[in-house]
Amino acid sequence: MDSPVRLGLRANWVQFSLLVVVNAFVGAMVGMERAILPLLAEQEFGLASRVATLSFVASFGLTKALANLLAGRLGDQIGRRRVLLAGWLVGLPVPWLLMWAPSWDWVVVANVLLGLNQGLAWSMTVIMKIDLVGPRQRGLAMGLNEAAGYLAVSLAALATGYVAAAYALRPQPFYLGVGFSLAGLGLSLLFVRETRHHAALEAQQHADSQEPTPSFREVFLRTSWRDRRLFAVCQAGLVNNLNDGMAWGLFPLFFAALGYSLTQIGWLAALYPAVWGLGQLITGALSDRLGRRPLIVGGMVLQGVSIGGMLLSPAFAGQAAAMVGLGVGTAMVYPTLLAVIGDVAHPAWRSTSVGVYRLWRDGGYVIGALLAGVLADVLSISWAIGTIAGLTLLSGGIAAATLEETRPPDECASASGVPEASAR
After folding, report:
1. Which stretches are transmembrane (predicted)?
2. What is the pTM of this model?
C-alpha cells in the first residue's frame, strides 16, 4: 500500500537523499571534461582558433538550454521520473564518443548529447526536490542539490586530470564517465519515484489553488520579462553561466600559457567547482534566513571581482585565490536563483517556469563561449577574461535594481495551510 503523500525534507528524506546522489552522477558527467577537453582540442586535434575550441561549450550550452525548456514542460505533462530516465539514456554514449572520436566534430556531437543529458536529468533532480520539500526550506534543498552536482564536477575534473597526467588525454580519463552514466541510470531506474503528486498536493493547498493554469506562452513571458523578480534571476543566471562557459573553455588554456603543469591545471579546474559545491551547503540554507536578494547581488559582484583578479598576478597562489573567490560568489548565487523561482512560481506551472529560467541560464554557455572565443582570437585571452568580469559586475547591478525580496516569512507556510509534513 502506498504511503500518504507528505511534504517536507524530513518526511521525504530517503527519496531526497537518493536524488542528491543521482545529481552527483549528473554533475560528474560534466566534470570529466572540464580539465582536459580544451587541451585535447589543441594537442590532439590541432585547433588554433579559440572559437573553434569553444565550439564544444557552445553546442553543449545550446542543447542544454533547449532541453531545460523541454524538460520543464514535459515534467508537468508526463511526469518527472520519465524525463529523468530519458536524460540518462541519451547520456550513455557520451564517454564512448569522447574516447574514440576521430575528429573534433565527433566531440561536438558528444557534447550535444551531454547537453541533453544535463538538461533533462539535472532539471528533474531540481524540480523533484522542490516538489518534495514543499514551501519551506527551498534554499536548503537547492543548496544540497547543487552542492552534490558541483562537488561531483570538481572531483571528476580532479580525477580525470590525474588520470590524464598518468596515462594520456584519452581514452583512460573517460572510462570514469562510463561508470558515472551506468550508475546514474541504474539508481534512477530502480529506486527513484515520481514526485508530481507532491506538487499536486501543494497546489491544492496553495492560496491560489483555484487559479487557472496559464499557457506555456504566458509562463514563458512571465518568467522571462513580465515579472521583475523572475527577470532578475533569468539575467543573473544567464551571466553566471556566461562566465562559467568562459571558465570551462578558456581557463585551462590561460593556465597553460602561464606555464602550469597538467596536474596544476587539474587542481585549479577542480578548485572553483569544489568551493562552489561546498559553499552551497551553507548559502542555500542562508538564503532561507537572510533572504535571496543580498546573496544574489553580492554573489554576482564577487564573481566579477574574482574573474578580474585573475589578470593581476601570474602566481599560482593568486590564481587559486581567484578560483576560490569565483567559487564562493557562484555558490551564493546558484541555489538562491532557483529558490526564487520556487518562491514565485505557482506549483501548477513551476516545472515549466524552472525550465524557462534554465533555458536563459544555460543559454549563457553559448553566449559566453562565442563572446570569449571571438575576443580571445581578435584581442587576447586576457581581454576576454576582463570583458566577462565587467559583464558580471553589470549583472549584479541589474539584479540590485530589479530584484525584490521573495523569501517567504517564517509564518508563510502555516499561513498558507501547508505545514512541512501534512497529508490530505
Report:
1. 12-31, 51-71, 83-100, 106-127, 148-168, 174-192, 295-317, 324-345, 365-385
2. 0.75
